[in-house]
Amino acid sequence: MQLKTLITAAMLALSVTACSTVSKVVYRIDVPQGNYLEAATVDQVKVGMNKQQVQYLLGTPVLIDPFSNDTWYYVFLIQKAYQTPEQHTFIVNFDKQGVVTHLDLDKPLPTAGEKEINNVVIEASESQNKRWWQFWK
């Protein structure tokens, strides 16, 4: 009697742990963090702009250099579902008058045309006019 209980408990434990080896079963959302950087807005930032103009385009930076307020860091990190996280860092350097002197983007951002479209358009069809007994039409 105890042997049957022990075998049943062991099989139950093995069947529960076997489910944990299946990957990508649970839905995971895309997690963007930091400043959302788009290629179109980053391209609008030019040398010669002032701090207010840069902040209007990109928002408040994630980090301002603590030793001098002349370097702003815009960090964008996105993790899509089960893919590895992708980080983009955009550094804006200002001179003492608050004018942009140097721009540095660590790697190119995806453009708007390269975005994946995951919306499905459902169009109205003739199936709304059909009756349940006319399934072959």
TrEMBL record:
Residues of the Outer membrane protein assembly factor BamE domain: 34-102
Membrane topology (UniProt): Lipid-anchor
Keywords assigned: Cell outer membrane, Lipoprotein, Membrane, Palmitate, Signal
Keyword Signal among record annotations: yes
Signal peptide: 1-20
Quaternary organization: Part of the Bam complex.
Protein name in the entry: Outer membrane protein assembly factor BamE
Native organism: Avibacterium gallinarum
Gene designation: smpA
